[in-house]
Amino acid sequence: MADINIGELPPGTKRCLVCAEPINIAARKCVHCSSDQVGLLRNVGVSNTVLSLLIALISVLTAGVPVLKDALTPKNSELAFSFQGADDNYINILAANQGTRPGSVRIGKIIRGEQELLLLRIYPNASSQIINPSNSLLLQFSGERAITTQNSSDICHLQFMGNDFKGKETTADVKVDCANVQSFIDTHIKPGF
């Protein structure tokens, strides 16, 4: 700040750092321009108006971000599947719904290489299983029927069919080592298929 020589100061006063008006020597804020005389705000040089606008902006953003996030979040189910294990009778699949609406799983199938091996049904027999938002469900599938003969591929695909909340059919694919489901396959595919 440049030196301002406006005249003598009355005893017990000092000049405001912003407007140069005389203020009490112990004043923390100027009575003329409301500028801070001490602390962090004095060095920043932010006026009360600008500071008020910044606080208002932060308040609006704090209230608006959740509304904006909700508006941009799809209102549908989002199903994910994870292979949990298999034995001679069942394949265990963990199904999780990471969406905001319920979804359903109907059937599955095992594909080895390019060939379908088995059609899978939810056990106990149900037309479909509903999975609510933010929930997981351990599903058991049993082999309903063999579709064709098996081949020698090491990778099996477990495909699951269902419907999202809007009624659109969805298919999810889970790759597993065929050795992990071989006893299940052997139990359900009889020689001669």
**What is the number of helices?**
3
- What's the average pLDDT? 84
Q: Tell me the structural class.
A: alpha+beta
**What is the CA-CA span between the terminal residues?**
95 Å
What is the approximate shape?
Answer: rod-shaped
Runs in which pLDDT lies below 50 for 5 or more consecutive residues are: none
Helical proportion?
10-25%
Determine and state the CATH class of the largest domain. Mainly Beta
Main sheet specs:
8 strands, antiparallel
Counting DSSP E segments of at least 2 residues, the number of strands comes to: 10
Give an overview of the whole structure:
It is a single chain. The chain is of the alpha+beta class and 193 residues long. It folds into two domains: 13-72, no CATH class; 79-188, Immunoglobulin-like, CATH 2.60.40. The protein has three helices and ten strands, in the order ββααββββββββα. Strands 3, 4, 5, 6, 7, 8, 9 and 10 form an eight-stranded antiparallel sheet that branches. The mean pLDDT is 84.
Give short descriptive properties of this protein.
Immunoglobulin-like; 3 helices; 193 residues; two-stranded antiparallel sheet; alpha+beta
What is shown here, in short?
This protein is α+β, with helices and mostly antiparallel strands and 193 residues long.
